[in-house]
Amino acid sequence: MATIAKVTNGASAASALDYALGKDKPLHEHTERWLEENRLERLDALKDCRAVAVGGINGIDPVIAKEQFKAVQQAFNQTARRNQVLRITQSFALNELDPTNTRDWQRANDLGCELAEKLYPDYQTAVYTHLDGQNHILHNHIIINKVNLQTGKKLDERKGSAVERARNANDEISKEQGWKVIEPVREHQSRTEQDLTKKGQYSYMADLRGRIDTTMQDTSICDFKTFSDVLARSGVNVSVRGQNVSYAFLDANKKQRRARGKRLGTDYEKETILNELERRTRERTAQQLDRDDQSRATELVRETTSTDTALEQREQQAQSRKPRIDQLRNAVKPIADHLQHFTGAVREFAGKVEQRVIDSKLYKDVASRFKADLAKQEQARQNAIKQDLAKRMAPKKQPQKSYYREPEGRSR
Predict the structure, then answer these.
(1) Spatial distance between the Cα atoms of 196 and 193, rounded to a whole number of angstroms
(2) Residue 65: exposed, middle, or buried by beta-carbon count in 10 A (0-12, 13-18, 19+)?
(3) What is the value of pTM for the model shown?
(4) What span, in angstroms and rounded, lies between the C-alpha atoms of 90 and 187?
(5) CATH class of the domain defined by 1-187
(6) Would the CA dihedral through 47, 53, 59, 64 be positive or negative?
(7) Angle at 38 between CA 37 and CA 42, to 5 degrees
(8) What pLDDT is attached to residue 185?
(9) Using 50, 70 and 90 to split pLDDT, how confident is the model at 412?
(10) How far apart are alpha carbons 281 and 222 in whole angstroms?
């Protein structure tokens, strides 16, 4: 009863891989509570992912599959953002694999890898196992990089042929497992739409998907508002209610049509579109940073080259000037020696002159003091002569006469 639920093309490998891994995305259908009730624990490496088991073929590590897919696309120049991957959804019935048995989680993933190996042995493939759908049925999201590892050519396969091959290979695996093979369940296509597609007649659902696909192929659209505005210009009005998105438009018969994203398919649901737009924003930011880093690196290389060239030129100029410098040094040396001797003689003469100046100054000081002493002595001698002369010239005092008489009658 293992079935191929759907086979679709994906314009962006990164978007498809992000959705399948579900990094930091909540589990649907209250799966967290269901896991607790059944005492089930996810692997530590996948505790923050929607996938409960991962695997791959041709050297793919599902956690870094984006980088591995991108490397091969770049190596073979297959980076055009159109149908980069093929996506296969493989489901298992409850009586085939038990979602409450953690060993069956890995078994489901291994069967997905086996299916990829049967269908696309020369292509990189990542397999992600989920159980957060209705009734927690185990199912695989198988993502195939469309670049052939041997030839580098892109996978070119009609959708009907891809679906038929996938179902036949899946039936073989079911038989090997001893499971009953039944008609596959076709999701997202009503019986009427299937009949119209087979007859090659107009289908408004196909028309609506085509308009949305054309809008999403414009990689410059990086946010939901721009996505809605561009779709509006193509006649499709987008409305959001909670986690759901719906599209309304006039079909080719001028009849008003409306369809929810879930009815159109996983690619057209709100979560898938938002994941792709967020990835584009991150990629554009990373590219801008890469361009800035490249610009800075180029400028640094340019500056380094310019500096190296300048240093090289200076070195060459220095080398070319070296002989002339040596000649000049040889010519200048005798002059320098002579100047050195002359400088020594000048210093000796200056010393003598300085000493004579000092001696002369000392002599002047002594002579000045001697003259001063002589002047003082001469002044003292002159003063003494003047004093002596003054004494000599002074008038002499006359003796005074006595007018005393002795009394009469007194004899001597």
Answers:
(1) 5
(2) buried
(3) 0.52
(4) 12
(5) alpha beta
(6) negative
(7) 105
(8) 41
(9) very low
(10) 6
